Amino acid sequence: MFTSVRDDLRATLDEIRAAGLHKPERVIGTPQSATVEVTAGGRPGEVLNFCANNYLGLADHPEVVAAAHQALDRWGYGMASVRFICGTQEVHKELEARLSAFLGQEDTILYSSCFDANGGVFETLLGAEDAVISDALNHASIIDGIRLSKARRFRYANRDMADLERQLKEADEGGARRKLVVTDGVFSMDGYVAPLREICDLADRYGAMVTVDDSHAVGFVGAGGRGTPELHGVMDRVDIITGTLGKALGGASGGYVAARAEIVALLRQRSRPYLFSNTLAPVIAAASLKVLDLLESADDLRVRLAENTALFRSRMTAEGFDVLPGDHAIAPVMIGDAAKAGRMAELLLERGVYVIGFSYPVVPQGQARIRVQLSAAHSTADVNRAVDAFVAARAELEG
């Protein structure tokens, strides 16, 4: 049977390569850090890593690694079960309680990833008589999660509050029983922050719930690192927060939904990705508790990340690069042409700076870019070296 399919698959793969959309996987021979060693699929040797979600540099932090070692000895490697059968340990309940307190929510439920968390929310809470109103640039996991529900779907232009109000009115006019507005807290390709206060104001006016995927914010955005609801002063007005343990919070894997108590209680009974997926590995849960200890005891990592971000953005702008405005650690350097973005990334790797070019369909046609991501693990010298590499790569590209 496969022989009849093979040629079609090969043709599809050839089309992906011809369109410049093939995604090679570079092999790293070291722990995730500000500096990594590329062993295959790119320039061999040690390079500065400016494309990881390791915002606080905790992926190889010695205290986090030590907590993981201790957890292996105490809790074992894996649970070999879903939560409701025999997959819940004390460490899972402790992490859920700590996340709830940290995020200012009533309860939290853990998932194997934030993709699964977003995949389990909408189908559980919304039926055919309900409406979900989603930002046009929301993450793929939100889009796929919405598709699983039978709710009517409305989409508003990115961060456009006038359009959001139009969609809410249309949902009302259609007789929606429940209305849920969902947005990324930070949009991962642009580094733009959602206007949560205005979103909550509109949601209150139209009787809607608010959901925020805060994967690119929790840990370092807001005065205490509690994410975009804290940044905008609406921690008590957001009904559902989804997020990941795989970015600023240690960079491993795992996700969560932090929400009103009744929402979490229903998710434990009806959310399919939760009910039918193995429990989060206890070593990740325990290491995540150590991450929360570090975040709550000091703000040095957040301060260092902010300083690195400001330095990179200011120097790149002074050198004449088109960097999308903002102060988030995601700093997209706009190139425009997809081929140029890919070539620029190659030239940077040759100069010891590891970044990735993004082009259509990941970003709109004609808006190809290199998404630079700063980390607290970067030194001032690292940031300056990256900017110098951009300047040299541009000179070669344009020469």
Explain the overall architecture.
It is a single chain. This protein has 399 residues and is an alpha/beta fold. Helices cover 45% and strands 18% of the residues. The chain has 15 helices and 16 strands. It has helices at 3-18, 62-75, 83-86, 90-103, 114-125, 140-148, 161-173, 196-206, 228-231, 261-270, 272-275, 282-297, 300-318, 338-350, 380-398; strands at residues 27-28, 35-40, 45-49, 107-111, 131-135, 152-156, 179-184, 186-187, 192-193, 209-213, 240-244, 255-259, 330-336, 353-354, 357-358, 368-373. The strands form 4 sheets. Strands 4-12-11-10-7-5-6 form a 7-stranded mixed β-sheet, sandwiched between helices. A 4-stranded mixed β-sheet has the order 1-2-3-14. α2 (62-75) packs antiparallel against α12 (282-297) and α13 runs parallel beside α15. The longest helix has 19 residues, at 300-318. The protein is globular, with a radius of gyration of 22 Å. The relative contact order is 0.15. The mean pLDDT is 95.
